């Protein structure tokens, strides 16, 4: 895709509200599971955070849990959500509907550990008949390139899913060229360190960034919101996809 960006974008990316399957530790993938009352309150909290961020465009995965979350947010922001299947959760194939505690039994010893290991050595890993991490990265990356070009210079909010946000952190926040920019890894977290000023010096800043990102990657909660910049997306080397047999 040819990049013709005129102005940078800010993207506020947030995870959908809680579902019963989130509470159970059951894998959802593309299955349609509604959000709970707690999930609806989380959506309202996200809306209150975004209300003063100047959001102009509201995008969302078209899966029911994200769709309902974005509909709640849209009423407060006064925006019509745009639903896009490209921002769906990773497709888990035969893993969908399984409890996390059952994964290793069905798919082999340490499968769950390897699935959550984001070293590039595991990027081709996939559940049987599911989407690999690399394939999902390609889908998300090129969708982000498309929407940031289409809405150049606009402030965008995107409602998506936990594994999507995990991979976005890995793809875009680990880049050394961005190591001097403050990290805002959880806008919904009221703790004092939710925005991190990095130490001076490229190597020190990169190491601090890496540690903070690794902590967040393993702990993205329902209703969390992370700030991205279009420069972070553009600075990513062109992603290629290798079809998994």
Automatic annotation (TrEMBL):
GO MF annotations, alphabetized: phosphatase activity
Phylogenetic lineage: Bacteria, Pseudomonadati, Spirochaetota, Spirochaetia, Leptospirales
Name of the protein in question: Phosphoglycerate mutase
SUPFAM superfamilies, sorted: Phosphoglycerate mutase-like
One Pfam family of this chain: His_Phos_1
Organism, scientific name: Leptospira borgpetersenii serovar Hardjo-bovis (strain JB197)
CDD domains xref list: HP_PGM_like
UniProt: substrate binding residues: 15-22, 65
InterPro entries in alphabetical order: His_Pase_superF_clade-1 (IPR013078), His_PPase_superfam (IPR029033), PG/BPGM_mutase_AS (IPR001345), PGM_Phosphatase (IPR050275)
Gene name as annotated: gpmB
Signal peptide stretch: none
Top-level division of the source organism's lineage: Bacteria
Cellular component aspect of the GO annotation: cytoplasm
